[in-house]
Amino acid sequence: MHNKASIKGIASYIPEIRLTNEQLADDFPDWSVEKIYEKTGIQSRPIASDSDTCSSMAVNAAKKLFEKQNISPDSIDFILLCTQSPDYKLPTTACIVQHKLGIPTHVGALDFNLGCSGYVYGLSLAKGLIETGQCNRVLLITSELYSRYINKQDKSVRTLFGDAATATLIEGVKAAQGFLTNFVFGSDGSGDKNLIVPHGGSVNPINSDSFVANHDISGNCRSPSDLYMNGAEILTFTLQSVPILVNSVLNNARLEATDIDKVVFHQANKFMLDKLRKKTKFTEEQFLVSYEHYGNTVSSTIPLGLELALKDGKLQSGDKVLICGFGVGYSWAGCIIDWTQS
How far, in Å, CA of 322 to CA of 260, rounded? Predict the structure, then answer.
């Protein structure tokens, strides 16, 4: 009997600063509090303070996890850090986190640049490391500060995104069957321009034009170093790709939608998730949502949803949980978790 990768615990760090619909309505008088909530389903969004960094948020989430699970940092074998807002272009933020947490230097540590699908990819990487015998305890962290890329005069994205970090402990346990199974992945780089920070990389290095902001036809203001999202194209991609992804995961597992106890999708916004739930034929009871008080926290949305479900008693040992991430890249991924209560 070989070791199988199992989720043993999840913890999060949520910044204290809140961006409310009332504040947004003050900044954008043509949008009322009611209109913002109706469009997004979000009441407020956590926003990183000036002192928050990718590594500090990651460390805070990990420390909560260690306390919750009553484990020592020196028991970790590998750190996986999913982020699109690292401390620096280089060095690797995961290495900084290793040092700040006091995790021994014999561990592996790497960043991977994925957004809304990143948590599922991270679980797959952790599963591979554990089930090939390379390590036994993986610390999977998501830490996102998209607010650093958002122009305050751009309501198209400012109303949606929040900042948060999560830490998940994945551990090898003796078992005949796997707990993380039926992974399905997808990538389509033809959609790269539809969710992008255009300047700051090797294609468009920072220059004198990078911080010059202009208004678009909808009145939103942004510069080439700010986040741009083509909402209509992202919605089209999502409604086409996600139902196929869900069907692939279910078919691989030889399951029907009715066999799934709980579903946690990437928490993009209410409008998109309502449409996806209907297209994928899951019930409201199966379909867990957490966007109302977090907003879209990118790679952190799925683990935040799982943590909230545990806290609210909506996730029980033995449940079959389908998770699904999708977005920037384009990138998408899904899998099934056979949940075990730790």
Answer: 7
Beta bridge partners of 13: 165
Concerning whether 99 is annotated as a catalytic residue, the answer is no
Catalytic residue chosen out of the listed positions 82, 182, 220, 266: 266
| C-alpha–C-alpha distance, residues 306 and 263, integer Å | 10
CA distance 24 to 241: 31
Distance of CA 9 to the CA centre of its chain: 16
pLDDT value of residue 1: 64
User: What confidence score (pLDDT) does residue 83 get?
Assistant: 98
Cβ count near 70 (within 10 Å): 7
Separation between Cα atoms, residue 181 and residue 116, nearest integer Å:
19
User: What pLDDT, on a 0 to 100 scale, did the predictor assign at position 276?
Assistant: 97
Q: Quick: pLDDT tens for 72-104.
A: 999 999 999 999 999 999 999 999 999 999 999
Catalytic residue among 82, 95, 116, 335: 116
Ranges under pLDDT 70 in the chain: 1, 341-342
- The answer to whether 116 is a known catalytic residue is yes
What pTM did the predictor assign? Answer: 0.97
Q: Is 135 a catalytic residue?
A: no
Q: Which residues of 260-274 are buried (b: 16+ CB within 10 A; e: fewer)?
A: bebbbbbbbbbebbe
Rounded Cα distance, 313 and 87, in Å: 35
Residue 240, class by beta-carbon neighbours within 10 Å (0-12 exposed, 13-18 middle, 19+ buried)?
exposed
Given 95, 296, 324, 335, which residue is catalytic? 296
CB 156 within 8 A of CB 30: no
> What's residue 194's pLDDT?
98
| Rounded Cα distance, 323 and 282, in Å | 13
Tally DSSP H helices, then E strands, for the chain: 9, 16
Other Cβ atoms less than 10 A from the Cβ of 206: the count is: 12
